[in-house]
Specification:
- The structure is a single chain.
- By secondary structure, the chain is α+β, with helices and mostly antiparallel strands.
- It has one domain.
- It is built from three helices and four strands; from the N terminus they run E-E-E-E-H-H-H.
- A two-stranded antiparallel ribbon has the order 1-2. The protein has a two-stranded antiparallel sheet with strand order 3-4.
- A hairpin with a 2-residue loop joins strand 1 and strand 2.
- Helix 1 crosses helix 3.
- The chain starts with a strand and ends in an 8-residue tail after the last helix.
- The model has no long low-confidence stretch (mean pLDDT 87).
- This is Phage tail assembly protein.
């Protein structure tokens, strides 16, 4: 079952004919398809995930069910909230993200 979370927007936005005061973020495994991550290592047991920012934008848009152009209309704080959800979702499946 997909997990859902509602984000209350700091600033109301209008996108097309719709006005938004909140966005529902849905975590579905299928949203991760097609997004590549590069795992890095320094050879000493320390590693990390190299995430492309475009991946986070596209994944965030999928998770809120709207095109990436909607994210452009959000305030910086609201953009950060959506991108943070996408980042945490990716990292959760690599063993390092926050719970939904």
């Amino acid at each position: 079952m997909a997990k859902e979370k509602t984000i209350q927007l700091a600033e109301q936005i209008t996108f097309g004919k719709d006005t938004f005061t909140e966005l529902t973020v849905t975590r579905k495994l299928k949203y991760l398809r097609g997004h590549a991550l590069r795992i890095t290592s320094d050879g000493k047991g320390n590693g990390g995930a190299d995430m492309d920012f475009a991946t986070l934008i596209d994944l965030g848009a999928k998770m809120v069910g709207h095109p990436p152009a909607l994210l452009d209309e959000l305030s910086e704080d609201d953009q950060a909230a959506v991108i943070g959800e996408a980042r945490d979702f990716l990292l959760k499946h690599l063993g390092g993200g926050k719970e939904a």
